[in-house]
Amino acid sequence: MSVAAMLPTPSGPHLERGLLPADFYAYEELLPDGEREKIDALREFLRTQVAPIVDDYWARGEFPFQLVEGFGGLGIMDWADPDSPEPRPSNLFAGLMSLELAHADASVATFFGVHTGLAMGTILACGSEEQKRRWLPAMSRFEKIGAFGLTEPHGGSDVAGGLQTTARRDGDEWILDGAKRWIGNATFADVVVIWARDAETRHVLGFVVEKDTPGFTATKIENKMALRIVQNADIVLDGCRVPEANRLQNANSFKDTANILRQTRSGVAWQAVGVMFGAYEIALQYAKERVQFGRPIAGFQLVQDLLVRMLGNATASCGMVTRLAQLQDAGVYRDEQSALAKAYCTTRMRETVGWARELLAGNGIILDYNIGRYVADSEAIYSYEGTREIQTLIVGRAVTGGLSAFVR
């Protein structure tokens, strides 16, 4: 069979099968029908339940808790329940799900990614069978929400060697002391994964701290200019006692932490593509409706040039993360491949939302036209889960045969 015969070919108008306008090369059609149906259900939920309210909640810096039950009702995380017969979906499905969420709103995508990717992903990868059965069923149904505590007030990019939160064994308990910063979902999470350094062995360990544990406090970070719906928190751990049963049994070094970040870093790249898709589609619709000099501005050469640049960035980035997902599904992807995708896609995202804002001119800074929210939120996505500069050092070390430029 020829390569051409193996590739999906959309028939008729581009949107005939419900593809997003920005999915110009029909990447979504790579999914099997069962996974496409789930993406369609998620898209409808986002269109009817999320899109109409996000501007209001973003402006107020509040979280729409009424959406949580709806996410659970979609059943898209049921497979994570150890007793579920559902097979684990492909990484391409997971990526397109992240794209779809960010296409609607980056804050909602971040909430979802923290809960399912960082918190649930850590328990899936590092928990014992008993721990998975204890926490994952309720988390998969969104009845319990998770958070992930790694970043610290004085440690971001250097957290691997600079982790200051400590864990001290005391009989059948561990005493956690330290602080975390920028922890999404932490103000209302039921379970928070906390990474701490064993005071005796200096190994990095993972713990699940449950809501209302004495010695654990989470305070909302105010006055953010981006991802305002996300409830980021400063966490203080002051003599916080956690039972040995809550120590993640397969999290025994920073390599285990890094493995989680390698997985979720690709999800951030997918989010960046989703933001580009959303910004492009808003700009395209606006250009068709905005009349100047007696006709829609979409008919002017310079406007079409901006639209094509945006579409090119989104399409190229989607191709990169689609291939990355295929490598993940094959079990052969590497750290530097996730790092390159995160660095490249978030850079192109920043550029693309800037062009969308430019096309909308003054209306681009008004929340009513949505683009202002995309521009602001892109700044956070550009930085979190590892800055562009750190990603380039990971890739640079790989392509130069192991020559590390990291400061020691």
From TrEMBL:
Cofactor annotation: FAD
The Acyl-CoA dehydrogenase/oxidase C-terminal domain, residue ranges: 259-399
Acyl-CoA oxidase/dehydrogenase middle domain residues: 147-240
Segments forming domain Acyl-CoA dehydrogenase/oxidase N-terminal: 35-141
Pfam families documented for this protein: Acyl-CoA_dh_1, Acyl-CoA_dh_M, Acyl-CoA_dh_N
Key words of the record: FAD, Flavoprotein, Oxidoreductase
PANTHER family per UniProt: ACYL-COA DEHYDROGENASE (PTHR43188:SF1), ACYL-COENZYME A OXIDASE (PTHR43188)
Family: Belongs to the acyl-CoA dehydrogenase family.
Name of the protein: Acyl-CoA dehydrogenase family protein
